[in-house]
Amino acid sequence: MFSFFKKKPGATAPESGPPAEPAPAAPPAPADPAPLAPAVAPPSAEAAPPSAGGLGWLRNPFARPAAAPVTPAREEAPAPPEAAAPSMPSAAPAPAPAPEPAPEPAPELAPALPEPIQELALPDPVATPRKGWMDRLRGGLRKTSASIATVFTGTRIDDALYEELEDALLMADTGVKATEHLLADLKRRVKESRATDPAAVKGLLADALTDLLQPLEKPLVIGEFTPTVIMVAGVNGAGKTTSIGKLTRHLAQAGASVLLAAADTFRAAAREQLGVWADRNTVEIISQEGGDPAAVSYDAVIAGRARRKDVVLVDTAGRLPTQLHLMEELRKIKRTIAKAGNAPGPDGMGSPPHEVLLVIDGNTGQNAVTQVRAFDDALQLTGLIVTKLDGTAKGGVLAAIAQERPLPVYFIGVGEKLEDLETFSAREFAQALLA
């Protein structure tokens, strides 16, 4: 309080001093100053307090004591009545110095540009959007779960229950090896837990299935290389181009800049279809009408390096694993992408493609395992995207893949909408399959 008073004496003088203003502005004193002295002297003692006790006193209580010492200045420079009269109105409305404006809050910093994402981690299963996803996943796997759930409607845990469960798992395309593994693991768990209720056996089966699928649960890592080149393959009709569009949405939402390469130049309207997805996700696309797929892939990787994109997604033509000459075309695309990575340009490219993904249709059942095996032998796959799990009775194919070729399943799809492709969680899938 006192420190404020010591810092403000210079600011209070203009408030209390009507006398300070007229002194420089007053005209020369008249020849007969005697009659003016009595007219000016009384206001110096009586009028000063009202002017000092106006708005300035109300706004700044610390300026009140400073009003008294200003009267001597009035006696030394008397002014004629004509000059004093206008000075009073000019001093009376003069407000105290405007209070210092409150410091403006520090401006919020503009959000920093997103750094290249390091990994697409699994979403929190308890988050609200994930709950909506679980509802869609259960709905998609309802046909599979219904055939398995009927096994646990009995009242006894005996050999008949295990035989029925074996049939149900085989009908769900779980595969012979995976079915044998699950039954052996389930019997061990039932014995250790001493379960007596078939409903409890269902929960133990969910645990066994989760453990079997756990090696497939792995996040897609982005950002280690600039750009990260992802080559996507699959047979015709598996939903490859649609999955690329949905994957682009995931990457864009995670803060990654994406460049698409329309290297599926053989299929009619494939380039236009990918262009629609590029427009929906507002990303750039490299395409050539009737061009060589390997050439389009090369140009896309070079453009991605020059534009410092985070991800380059290469859409390739659909191939059947039995068409060996067409599978060789995929190998050529992969080699060409590697050459583009070795071309002169910014560092940090590594040896592309960094991810080789296979899109498989969940309705194909055991044929999906054959596709995984053939494409893996030809391209050395790094991950899978499983689509069209909605309405299928063959949802157990993931267990067969986990037993035969445990490649990471980055995403699974249950519909055609953008939000119908989500990251894979072993626990969620097992619960939905046995709901």
Molecular structure report:
There is one protein chain. The protein has 435 residues and is an alpha/beta fold. It has a domain at 216-433: P-loop containing nucleotide triphosphate hydrolases (Rossmann fold, 3-Layer(aba) Sandwich). It is built from 20 helices and ten strands. It has helices spanning 2-7, 9-16, 22-25, 36-46, 48-52, 55-59, 72-76, 81-91, 128-140, 142-149, 159-171, 176-193, 198-213, 240-253, 270-281, 293-306, 324-342, 366-379, 397-404, 426-433, and strands spanning 119-120, 220-221, 228-234, 258-262, 284-286, 311-315, 355-361, 383-387, 409-413, 421-423. The strands form two sheets. The protein has an eight-stranded mixed beta sheet with strand order 5-4-6-3-7-8-9-10, with helices on both faces. A two-stranded antiparallel sheet has the order 1-2. Helix 18 (366-379) links the parallel strand 7 (355-361) and strand 8. The longest helix is centred in the last third of the chain and has 19 residues, at 324-342. The model is unreliable at 1-92, 107-118 and 121-128 (pLDDT under 50).
List keywords for this structure.
435 residues, alpha/beta, Rossmann fold, eight-stranded mixed β-sheet, two-stranded antiparallel ribbon, 10% strand
Q: Assign an overall shape.
A: elongated
Rg calculated over all Cα atoms: 41 Å
Report strand %: 5-15%
Q: How helical, in percent, are the residues?
A: 40-55%
Largest sheet: 8 strands, mixed
Per CATH, what is the topology of the domain at 216-433?
A: Rossmann fold
- The end-to-end distance, rounded to whole angstroms, is 72 Å
Counted beta strands: 10
Which superfamily, in CATH terms, is the homologous superfamily of the domain at 216-433? P-loop containing nucleotide triphosphate hydrolases
Record the strand order, biggest sheet.
5-4-6-3-7-8-9-10
What structural class is derived from the secondary structure elements? alpha/beta
Q: What is the class of the domain at 216-433 in the CATH system? A: Alpha Beta
- Spell the H/E element sequence: HHHHHHHHEHHHHHEEHEHEHEHEHEHEEH
